[in-house]
Structures are given as structure tokens and as C-alpha cells.
Design goal:
Number of strands: 2
Order of helices and strands: HEHHHEHHH
Distance between the termini: 63 Å
Number of domains: 1
Structural class: mainly alpha
Largest sheet: 2 strands, antiparallel
Helix content: 40-55%
């Protein structure tokens, strides 16, 4: 049996740096939503205030994690009844008011864009969108905007003086506060 000779081109390509977005340990999925210019600017502003270990790409995951924690809290509030959302919440605006969030601006035109979510967060976004769509007819973009507003409020109030190194650290903080 002859031993196979190593290819020079294979050795050269092995150490070649890759172009484009750096690989993550868990691949992210594109999710298409409509965001207003103000919401896009808000995401940029939030990214500037994050610690160096977190980036703008982590903001959608954190927004969905916080939304999932708050939706679980709503579910636990009505656990003994056959509802998923309490009776007093009659539309999406009343959910903003319940969580002390500023109401979204209705005058600006949303434009389609994609966000990248980890697989579990895309499932959580779908779960929240399913619940809010059944109750109020909310679409995926409106649900993500709710999560983004909740994350903005949370970062301004809770994480102002705390330093976290990963999305999991922030998620543990959400869970400790809300569940």
C-alpha cells in the first residue's frame, strides 16, 4: 500500500484566513422583519453602550430572550386559567403600557431587513409571535419591536452599572429578575 503524498495546495488553503462574518459555535438563522429607521438607530445606540465582549449581533438574541422571559411571566400569572395572557391586556399597546414601555411611533414607515438569531431564540420569537398573533393579530415585526423596546428599557434601568461578558450572562440576569 502506498502512502498518499500531502498536497501543497491543501496545506496552503488550510491556514488561509476566511473572509466575511466570523464563524460562531452555533450558527445563526436569518429572520426577516420590518423595522423603522428609529428602531435601527436604537439598535446601533444599544450596541455602543454594550460591554466589549457583546456586539450588535447579540442584541436580537437578547431582545428575544427578554421577551420570552416576560411572556413566561405572563403565562405564569394566568397559570390556573385557560388563558395565556391576562384579561386586562386587550391589544399590543396595553402590553406596552403594562410593561412601562414607550409606545411605538406609528408615523414612520418600516422597511424590511433581516436579523440573525440563534436557533433557540428563533423558536422563542415564533412562540411569542404565535401567542400575540392569536390574541391581537400581531406580526413578527411587531413582536420583535416589543422585545427591542423591553430590552432598551431593561438595559437603561438594570444593566447600567453591571458588566456582562456574554448573552448567557444577560439571560441569567433576565431569569433571575423575571422568573
Amino acid at each position: 500500500m502506498t502512502k498518499r503524498k500531502e498536497s501543497t495546495i491543501a496545506a496552503l488553503l488550510e491556514d488561509k484566513p476566511r473572509r466575511g462574518r466570523p464563524r460562531r459555535s452555533i450558527g445563526r438563522k436569518n429572520v426577516y422583519i420590518a423595522l423603522t429607521a428609529e428602531q435601527k438607530q436604537l439598535m446601533k445606540a444599544l450596541a455602543k453602550n454594550l460591554p466589549d465582549s457583546l456586539s450588535r449581533a447579540d442584541i436580537p438574541d437578547m431582545a428575544v430572550n427578554l421577551l420570552a422571559a416576560r411572556m413566561d411571566l405572563l403565562r405564569s400569572a394566568v397559570a390556573d386559567r385557560d388563558r395565556e395572557i391576562p384579561e386586562g391586556i386587550t391589544d399590543l399597546d396595553s402590553l406596552y403600557l403594562l410593561w412601562d414601555l414607550p409606545l411605538p411611533a406609528k408615523d414612520s414607515e418600516p422597511r424590511w431587513t433581516s436579523i440573525r438569531l440563534s436557533p433557540q431564540q428563533s423558536i422563542e420569537l415564533g412562540r411569542a409571535q404565535g401567542a400575540l398573533n392569536a390574541q391581537f393579530g400581531a406580526n413578527r415585526s411587531q413582536v420583535f419591536a416589543l422585545g427591542l423596546a423591553a430590552l432598551t428599557s431593561f438595559l437603561q434601568e438594570e444593566l447600567a452599572d453591571k458588566q456582562y461578558t456574554s448573552v448567557n450572562d444577560v439571560d441569567r440576569w433576565f431569569t433571575r429578575i423575571y422568573l
